[in-house]
TrEMBL record:
Name of the molecule in the record: DNA repair protein RadC
Record carries keyword Zinc: yes
Family: Belongs to the UPF0758 family.
InterPro entries for this protein: MPN, RadC_JAB, UPF0758, UPF0758_CS, UPF0758_N
Lineage: Bacteria, Pseudomonadati, Pseudomonadota, Betaproteobacteria, Burkholderiales
GO biological process: proteolysis
Key words, A-Z: Hydrolase, Metal-binding, Metalloprotease, Protease, Zinc
Amino acid sequence: MDIKDLPAEARPREKLLQRGAQALSDVELLAILLRTGMAGKNVFQLSQELLQLGGISGLLSASPATFKTIKGLGPAKKAELLAVFELARRALAERLQKREAFQTPGAVKQYLQLQLAHKSHEVFAVLFMDSQNRLLAMEELFRGTLTQTSVYPREVVLRALHHQCAAVVLAHNHPSGSVQPSRADEALTHNLKASLALVDVRVLDHIIVGQGQSLSMAEQGLL
């Protein structure tokens, strides 16, 4: 059934205006963004197909490549969806960043999911924190295959001194999806921890981010 075939009060846009966005299902909200379906697939079916990519959280991490499996989704709709999801991701990240402190690994993992999970290439980032675990800045310092030879401790130390931070959280993503740390990840963590200790900066954690999941090396006892 197409939107035009529904009673006026059951159409997603009218329903949203009358009852608020919270009254709509995920499928209905996506249908408003998409507006129309395509030949052989109405807008609700198209919305349902998008949600099979990992639900709303999966769409928040979407990249252009994510939509390759969705037949009939044209460039204009792809661009609109990516723009909306990016705005939502930025709004959530802004809200998290304004918290007084990242008191738990869960809060840090949530923030890093928004920042790194959608990237198709491997990125090494550092969260620079003050003595109260408040975020001073986040920087993506290195990209590509991450090893002890491609992540330079000297650069991390210099950026830590620049921000005058008391602690850092290390982070990188695994575009493959697995968040299990490798031996190279563990060696890199301990190397950076030793280097930063020389300037009295603590390493609070090393978070590995995958699509829809993250791992805290501190929680795993690997620090």
